[in-house]
Amino acid sequence: MRTMKESVLSLSRTTGRFTSGARVLPSFLLAGGQRCGTTSLYRALAQHPLLLKPVLHKGVHYFDVAYGRGSAWYQAHFPLRVSAALLAHRYGTRAQAFESSPYYLFHPLAGERIAADLPGVKLVVLVRDPVERACSAHAHELARGFETESHFEYAIELEAGRLAGAEELLREEPHALHHSHRHHAYLARGRYADQLDRVEAMIGRERVLVLDSHRFFAEPEAVYDRVLEFLGVPHLGYPVFERHNGRPLPRQVPEVLGKALRDHFEAYDARLVRWLGGEPSWRR
């Protein structure tokens, strides 16, 4: 039996489909990475009156797991054009819709879908110490019931086997889902440079902004200013900056494993310099 919330969401989606042609499409996406502070940045940006979040929920996940639902379904999630026009008239510049789905960066087909359906769109990507990210992701998936291996070390050992053939499957069957690719890619998702190279080829370097999430949490005002400049949005004061979706790490990574993982990521981290304009904070 449906809950009240599910019924309201279903009604909203139905109404949205009927009016999809009268709704705005996103000008930019928070595309990842997972467990890198995307929710915190999303909520800070959503406080800006000219940045319009989805009507129903933060992560639409259209370009990764819901692409088969079609463009009308996707557009139904966003505000009406008349609302955006009223805001543009009030502030003297256009309002921009956006959404945040951290699987977009990692999904092998998301970049080309985004490029085809949203020409001119910009991407904002956050990156974090990949060892910390892997630990956080494991704790997160374990707490949500998507991971059954409680030991981080063993989950890392299982990863290659779990992900074997995943990208090939997702490319051969475009609407397929792969549980481990989405929930068990602890090391693979931290190889940010590979994912950025892929979206650069589809979207273009000038339309991708990569941020160090450690700096965002340490100096949120400076990073917020940089995002607004990238988007061409006027500064109208600072929002309330809060940390959302954080999950304390269960324990320290054993020293030997930590060293092995840092060595594993070293070459990938070095390739982030051209995206960040300097060394990643966790390598300094």
From TrEMBL:
Which Pfam families does the entry link to?
Answer: Sulfotransfer_1
* Chain ranges of the Sulfotransferase domain: 27-234
Matching InterPro entries, A to Z?
NST/OST (IPR037359), P-loop_NTPase (IPR027417), Sulfotransferase_dom (IPR000863)
Natural source organism = Nonomuraea solani
What GO molecular function terms would the record report? sulfotransferase activity
- Keyword Transcription: yes or no? no
Which SUPFAM superfamilies does this entry report, sorted A to Z?
P-loop containing nucleoside triphosphate hydrolases
Gene3D superfamilies per the record?
P-loop containing nucleotide triphosphate hydrolases
Report what the protein is called.
Sulfotransferase domain-containing protein
Biological classification of the source: Bacteria, Bacillati, Actinomycetota, Actinomycetes, Streptosporangiales
Keyword list (alphabetical) reads:
Glycoprotein, Transferase
